[in-house]
Design brief:
With about 70 residues, the chain is an all-alpha fold. It is built from 2 helices and no strands.
Length: about 70
């Protein structure tokens, strides 16, 4: 459950970054820093999703084996 909250918080932070970048009202240096932060968050979220998918597959396999 803690991972879900963390995932949701990271998604919200990524959405906030995207919104800031889309507004085009920040300086280039800040845009680059936000873009870099967004990429890092995106990679972390992808990794977490892959972990969730793996766990679901394991649970499905356990159910099939019963």
């Amino acid at each position: 459950m803690a991972e879900e909250v963390k995932f949701e918080q990271q998604m919200k932070k990524l959405q906030d970054i995207v919104e800031k970048l889309e507004r085009n009202d920040i300086e280039l240096d800040e845009s680059i820093a936000l873009y870099e932060e967004g990429l890092k968050l995106s990679k972390q979220l992808k990794s977490q999703l892959e972990g969730f998918e793996k766990k679901i597959k394991e649970l499905d396999q356990e159910i099939e084996d019963e």
